[in-house]
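ARCHIVE CARD
SHELF: 3
SLOT: left
DATA:
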Amino acid sequence: MLWAYANVKASNPNLFKKVGDHIVALDNLGTFKPQELSNIVWAYATAGESHPKLFKKVSDHIVALDNLESFWPQALANIVWALATNDESHPKLFKKVADHIVALDNLRTFKPQELSNIAWAYATAGKPRPQLFKKIANHIAVLDHLRTFAPQALANIVWAYATADESYSELFKKVSYHIVSLDNLRTFKTQELSNIAWAYAKAKESNPRLFQKVAPVAASLLSTYNSQQSANIAWSYAVINVPAPSLFNTDFINACLEKERDFPLKGLAQLHQWNLWQEELESNVCLPASLQEKCYDAFVTQGFHQSAFQDNVISVLSSIGLEPEEEVLTKRGYRLDALVEVNGSKVGIEVDGPSHFVGRKPTGSTILKHRQVVRLEGISIVSVPYWEWNKLGKDNFKKQKYLRALLGLSSPVGLSQALADGLAIRKSKTKRREISTNQLNNANEESNAQEDFRGPDMRNCGTIGELAQMAYDHLDVMSPRDMSAFWTLAAKFLRGKNQRSQVRDKVFKLKLDTILAYTQIEIQSYDYRDLAQTTLGFAKIVKSVHGKRLLRQSPQQILQNIFISNNAETKQSMFGCMAKASMHVLSEFDARSLSNLIYAFGLAEYNLKFEDGGTLFDVLALEATSNIKGFEPQHLSNIVWAYANVKATNPSLFKKVGDHIVALDNLGTFVPQDLSNIAWAYATTDESHPKLFKKVSDHIVSLETLESFWPQALSNIMWAYATAKKSHPKLFRKVSDHIVALDDLRTFKPQELANIAWAYATAKESNPPLFQKVAESAITKQNEFNSQEIANLLWAYATNGQIDQQLFQSLAPIAASLFSSQEIANIAWSHSVANVPAPSLFNDAFINACLEKEREFPLEGLAQLHQWNLWQEELESNVCLPASLQEKCYDAFISRVPNASALQDNVISALSSIGLEPEEEVLTKGGYRLDALVEVNGSKVGIEVDGPSHFVGRKPTGSTILKHRQVVFLEGISIVSVPYWEWNKLGKDNGKKQEYLRALLGLS
């Protein structure tokens, strides 16, 4: 009855009151079914009828139940939705429902609307249940698609997670990818678009493509937005920082003016931040002066509360000699918790408590404030996160040390003496400049002044020790150009073989520390050329010492200690300084210097993350794409290589570079290393550009010879084409012919040999002479291979059906020093295919290694181990996997889903037509699936319909060889193969097909 009134939107307060009073008066609700309880509270909430005693009665009854197993998902969702909608607080009920849902094995029986209502209810009621939100997020994130989720459900879900400060990036990504993939957003209502934009901004889950997709739709619905929705949309785009001229234009301004009187204070404050964003963008669109003033007033009137946490931070700032101003109002209306002066610059201190974060990520509001203060006020912002401060406890000394480090008041290289020396040198240099200026004003002393201020000539230095001494002695007269030359030469000296002896100078490290500190102090004054050159020098030094065992007290080991020790703090600090210095003059960089800068950061694997969620490489990409035609081949090569090396994706940059290269008349100016780096970068970043790959391969094929291609270039090119799945038989033939024609492969490193073999196997390019040549070389270098190279090499030979027994036997003893789980599986499978016993490798130690890594094996690895175990059965070996692991491997092996092709159906149909009764998709005891099984002359015969994937050229792949061999040997079932090309030759002639099968099976 109540449900009916609510469903037809019929209001009758008297009826609802009487029914409610009646239910409340009952001794208990034991006779009420879950659906009836659900319908009752849903009806009251839907009809807007308040009855607190009724809601309490129902809630108390549910809480008292032993369990909620009889409650269907819809009932649970409706109950919590009703309580949240009617603002009925009952913590025990919300806990009871949440605990029940979390304890479920899965949420498959929950419909999208039910999941949406539950998340919305807990967020609205302010009942945080992290485990519940995690359960729902994990369920949605692994769904194949979100096509069953209505726009309202999607909007409510992300709104709920943002409101509840529950950070689940995978959920937000899943929803955004779904929305972006839709043909259009016509079914999305105004409120839904507003809530989605607000949620992503609040949670700072940036997805520019989502906001770009929403913008034109939001613009078309502008007239339907109420004032708060308009403000939410504007604020959201300001936070995410995605320009949207189709949305924010004069129409938007007019819409704001029409609704000016309707905006609440919060909405006006949001419009103020949007207006500041337009200032950031240097846009011509802005609010009229009168509305700007109104918005500013609303923004600055927002209440603020100084916490005990904030008081404590300010007290410690004072204790380290700073004089913090408290609650400083900036020109644009932001309030800073404190403002201090550090080294002559204003620094804002933000004491960020839990409300400033979603998990450990800053909220959209926090990021927007920090970004706008930095960009528009010119004030640096330093954040003190609550969890870092809480870790320090009550130890004031630790707090002082923490703030000094945060504000750069301690040595940037960890040595206060080095910094003090650097600052003293800077003062001395400034004084010398003043003296020089005075002398230059006197014509009689001009030549003396110029001589007095000239930097040192470092070209005659023979060692890095001499270089450091000269720089240290002349720091007070060294220009930025001299400093960049020093770091360039230092990197060069480190690569020299005569620089690997111990340093006798006991203060060599202190000299380097001082030069380093001085560089960090002066870096802000460098022009773009010196910045690029210095950064490149640093990057080469870091690359040359990273991850290496070096002679104690050698220059390399000392620099390794400086840059890489203490979690690479010095490296992070120096590259951070260079990145920030570059941002100020980025527009001045010429093509060569910009390329060097990008390459340097890529070489050092350094990618600074900004507060707005962007990265250093995002900014560099914008500059690079606007100057694409000015780059030479090496520049383009270095740029895309750097992005790949630092794992930074930027589809727009890669598309522009690819399009530019494709548009060139020819690639005659590209050296082999350029071509190699470009192909490798596109494959590594998974950036698809078929025309680029074709252009590069056509160019290489057209060359008379490949003598100028070093082994690494050949290896990387072939690896790239195989990885990117770019088929170009002529290129593979050209490279293989070149390698086979070489006298020997002495110059090829093990990784290059392994990558070449892997590439040909992956691309299914059969070339026995190449595989024979590589095998001969690998055997001579067997002791130089590492585990991954051995696994990749043997996998390639096995996969391609290229069985070289000597190669497998030679590498087996080296392979015994086992590897990662996938390498173990690949090695085991490869030997199984090759059928080359290796007792020195496959023994008890191998079994123990498998057991140690049992949890790490992916399904594919377990399946490979199953085939290896079958091989041990073939060999009648005493070595085998333990029963529990055998079972696990078998389950993984048979879990592969069979997929019958049209070719397979056609062959089975023809088998039936000749009087046989084929069983289809037969699972053997060993776990193999046979396409068909027939009985011929009293014997079982397996029919394998082998399509193109079963062959390399016309030779069976390793997988096909292994399957056929093990089924015959272990199952006692003969195997007959029907190769696709033989069947295709028969066309549609059923008579010929029947004759072919009879001959194949010995029936004719």
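SLOT: right
DATA:
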Amino acid sequence: MQCHHSIVVDLFDVQSNKEISLEEIMDGLRYVMEYRIKGGRFPSLDYDIMRRLADGLLQNMGDAEKKRKFRTKLTEEADVAFQLFGEFLLEVKEFRQAVGEKPVSDLRYALKLDVRCEPGSTEQQQKSAVALIALLTTIYPQFSDWRELVKSDGQSDVQKCMAEHAEFVKAERMPEMGGVILAPQALCFDRRIKRCLKMYRTSLETGLPSEAIPALQEHYGKNILPQPPRTSVFKMIWTQFTDFMILLLLAVAVLMAGTKDFVAMGVLLFVVLLNAVIGFTQEYKAGKALDALTKLTVPRAQVLRDGSTSMINSEELVPGDIVILEEGESVPADLRLAEVSQLEIVESILTGESVAVNKDPKEIKTLTRKLPLGDCKGNAFMSTVVAKGRGKGIVVRTGRLSEMGKISAAITVLTPVQRKLARLGKLLVVFAIVLCFLMAGIKIAYHNDVKESLKVAISLAVSVIPEGLVAVTTVTMALGVRRMATRKAIVRTLPAVETLGSVTFVCSDKTGTLTEGKMGAAELWTSDGAAYGFTESTSLDPNKGDVTVKSHSEEQPQVMEKSLDRVPAQMLISLMVSSLCNNSSVVQKDEDEDENDIVPSTTVPVDVKGEEKAAEAEKVAETAPAAVEWKGIGDPTEVALVVAAQKAGFPKSFFHDLGYTRIYEQAFDSERKVMSVVYKAPLDTKSANGEHFEFVLAKGAPEEILNRCIGYLPHLEPSSLSSPLDVLRPHKQDLAQPITEDFYDQVSDTSGKMADNGLRVLGLAFKKVKINGGGATEEDLGDGLDNINKVRDEKETPAPTLKPTKLDLMTAAITNQADDDDEDEEIPPGYGENDLVFLGLIGLIDPARAGVQESVRICKEAGISVVMITGDHIKTASAIAKELGILEEGGRAIKGEELDLLSEQAIAELKPFPNVFARVSPDNKLKLVTALQSRGESVAMTGDGVNDAPAIKAANVGVAMGIAGTDITKQAADIVLSDDNFNTIVEAVEEGRRVFDNILKFIVYLLSCNCAEIFLFLLCSIVNVDLPFTVVMVLWANIIADVPPAMALGVEPAEPGLMSRNPRSPKRGIITLTSFGVIMYQSLIMTLLTFGVYMMHDRSDPDKESYAQSESFTVLTSLQLLQGFLSRTMRTSVFKVSFMSNRWMIVGVLVSFVLMIIGLYVPGFNHVLELQPIDGLSWARVVVCCVILVILSELEKLLLRVTGWSV
């Protein structure tokens, strides 16, 4: 009852575990009761399990949903839990014992008998309540008074129910719930195939009957993913105009219209409209992430029903359907594979690993109901792709309960990262309102006109809200997006550009991001102690690269000749294993491959045609021009082995031409960790009677290969053999020597050293069979060499008390089949993977990308921690991490199984925090992101598979792979790398820092300029003098002096040492105490200089007053434009920055200055602005004020450099 135990554990944890639902657990328990326990088949079970089951059922039978306003309604799952509670009381002794130990108060609270008997309850609830009361009062003396089990105010309702349903008072049974009891949706990886067929009432030969499909669809639902909530276009637009800051600007625009300042109103409305258009566009694009899930669902499926195969819409599939998978097709639902023929499935969208997974229908014995997806060899998952072979599977999970369905629910919430700018905007709004009231109060206190005072206050509100802030911020980020796109980083959400600048952790996949994503042979060690290397190993071109002999001396490695009589036997046979124990090939990119040679059988076929095709492809390779591009077909690891043999000069075609023919194969599986093939070769090429010899070639995990070997091939003198291939031929004298402990240790040490160098290591071996006949005759395969499991499981039958339903009658012909066992495939004698001769070890490597080591160094200088996340072995991962500088002395690497045992808090508290996470499933990525964020880190997370999407969305910056990434991952990410390169991430971080620096520069600039106007108005109001500007002048100054220089600051080149700073704290706001002080300092300088010039003038009549205002306007506007140049650096002296490095600043300031001159000197226009021309003396004062501003600004930057204060 192992399955029963795991269901009980899930039931107990259902409240805290979001990955399982109460509905799933109740279905499973109900099925177990009807088909395994009821009828006295298991009257006694483990007490601890029953105690937990009782606790779990009591905990969940009160589950309720709201009904109207004041009443609740018990859920269907709560009713099932209540029913099962009674049935377990009847059937299992230990369950009765566990319930008898419960206090009556606990039962009264959990059973809710009063609720089940109230007038609004269903008849089924009332019958069940009465039956359970009868059971409890009969079985237990301590519960003999039923009133103790019911709340006092509900006892009258219960007594009434007992009278109405008297037939259950002494019946000692629970009422039948009715409905169809069907197998729950589960992966069933621990079930034998014929057990699964019984559970789902189906057959591999005929499939489900069509007439049963409607009832099954009604019970299980359609095979469609949950539809995430959609935001309408109108709601997106409405959201843009209901932002707090925008609403205030709209209010100010209305007030401006009321005072007939239509120019100011037009400017404000234009800014509002621009922000709305840009914001809507970004949100609309982000919303497409919700549509990507439906694109990933498979529209059609090949299904077996009524004994015939047909194509149907995949949404019509139900559990129990038999689906046929062909090469290149997508999987339409979660399947339990029943038959496979060299089936390999690419599950990268779920597991993140690009290597195709070999599938095996054998059951997996385990103590848990949940295995990592990569270990579910007997399952195929929705939306994964068949890379090779074919298969047949039983649909076991559909729709929302499929792995894809569970993932879709995790990414339906899309939230933009614009918190900091929103906070700044709200602070500025509050500041504006306060100043507005303050100004109005001061003016009115001096008995000035109320209407005029309010108008001036409104103009100040416009001044303090930098209406260019939103537009300039957006444009600056957009320009950063354009620059990042040229660096292969495509930004999907604008705020991600700024967020990149504060990243403190970069969590990166290894394969294809930190490494090239191409497997290549790096080293071959043979049993005679020789070591060989490979040049250009990752190049698929068979004409490039050689094999070299490794030497311990510093001499140049010797290149091996590509000649049969020049190579050692150990090396040749090792490369033969690499080439022939292999189902992959390398072909020209423009070559069409015939993929129709698939043998539809339940045993593994011998693909002779495939061998011939591979050989023909290699012949083409040998004669092809060097400019031809090549591609590998099949598993990347096997492609690397094929390429290694080709570079040595011994491709498949070489052996094929010698008459070597494959006659049998045992495919790789995760239990054996070995693949083997059997070849036959002619004993004598001149022989007419076809005499031949046979041999086994095997490759796999080094420890597995070595444990299956009884000997090894020692050093052989070249003169002892006429050809190295003679090793495989029958000999009177055996050339192999027995394996000793010393040899075993030597292989283990060598394998360990290769793994420490970042290599993926495989062992190679062979075995001679015998002349003419090999393993056995076709008529009598014998009993094989491996143990065959003859244990037959008991048939799964329903309880005798269960009344057959209409669906039972429809599927009766299937469920009554006599046979209930899976027959293990018999291995022909002599072909077993035992008594092998060890040949050597071959090490494969996925080389580090060029420049990644330097990028990691830059990250560390910038205070950014780099974390490698991979599914590789921890030794391989650590070796690559050390090579790249990610894992240093004293660093830490942990495995995924260790991560599973830790809570998020425990992960966050790890010291030192690991730099390498190996054997990690993508499910753990979200846990890692939230753990880092809980300790205040800003995380950038990379990913390419579908189930990386929740982690990518939760990260501060989600980074998707453009080449290997899936559509859903790209849509969920903030940034997409078009070249899948880690170096691009670092460049993006640098660009993000530059963008934030520039945003900070123009925010400081805008606020300094606008605060200077505010302080000037406040100062004049306090001393009760006429204001130096009219409202029109204020608006004109904002138009010409705010946006152009600020936009130019947005494209300011990066300051030196940008990547030498520590990252900004993610919790730190845009404006810090230091930057606030800088704003106050700069604004007060401009305020006091302008106020001094204004107060120097005689303002005794209107003309003189107008001239003083014009000169003050010129002084302040000129100071603001100069401040634009000074703001190009926050700490560095402006004189150390190239004047021409930002030509947009020169253009922007010139444009603004020309507009200022036009406003002063163009007749008519200056009258509208209430300005007049000024003379040379006034310009002299302007120049003096500018010089003073430069001197004081340089002193401020000197102070920042000396103190080290962070802006």
